[in-house]
Design a protein that fits this description.
Strand content: over 45%
Low-confidence stretches: none
Number of strands: 11
Mean pLDDT: 78
Order of helices and strands: EEEEEEEEEEE
Helix content: under 10%
Shape: flat
Number of domains: 2
Largest sheet: 9 strands, antiparallel
């Protein structure tokens, strides 16, 4: 039988709303308090409470993931993974996501 370890404490409703308030109902910080792990995760949000970034700290090393949105429709425009892979999402004339491109030479997904 496997014993599950839970990260605690987890804080909600204290995440900054792009510097203008608080995002209610979203996670802000989670940490692991046992002595075997050094783990902390912080979440960042924009003024519409959409996820912008999360920073995971493990043994004093930061791993950052980010998301960017387009200014007109608010769709996901792109992002960056913790490995440094940069992603871009392309949309058709009807607003449907058609392709995801990476900073590598080949497309990740085509319709």
């Amino acid at each position: 039988m496997v014993k599950l370890k839970f990260r605690k404490p987890v804080f909600f409703d204290t995440a900054s709303q792009g510097g203008t308030g608080s995002c209610l109902g979203v996670i802000h910080t989670e940490t692991r308090e046992d002595s075997s792990d050094n783990f902390k995760k912080n979440y960042g949000y924009d003024e519409f409470c959409r996820p912008l970034s999360n920073t995971t700290q493990i043994d004093d090393t930061d791993y950052i993931q980010s998301t960017q949105y387009d200014d007109y429709y608010g769709r996901v425009k792109g992002g960056q993974t913790v490995s440094g892979l940069t992603l871009e999402t392309l949309y058709n004339d009807y607003g449907y996501a058609m392709q995801s491109l990476s900073n590598r030479a080949i497309p990740l997904y085509n319709r």
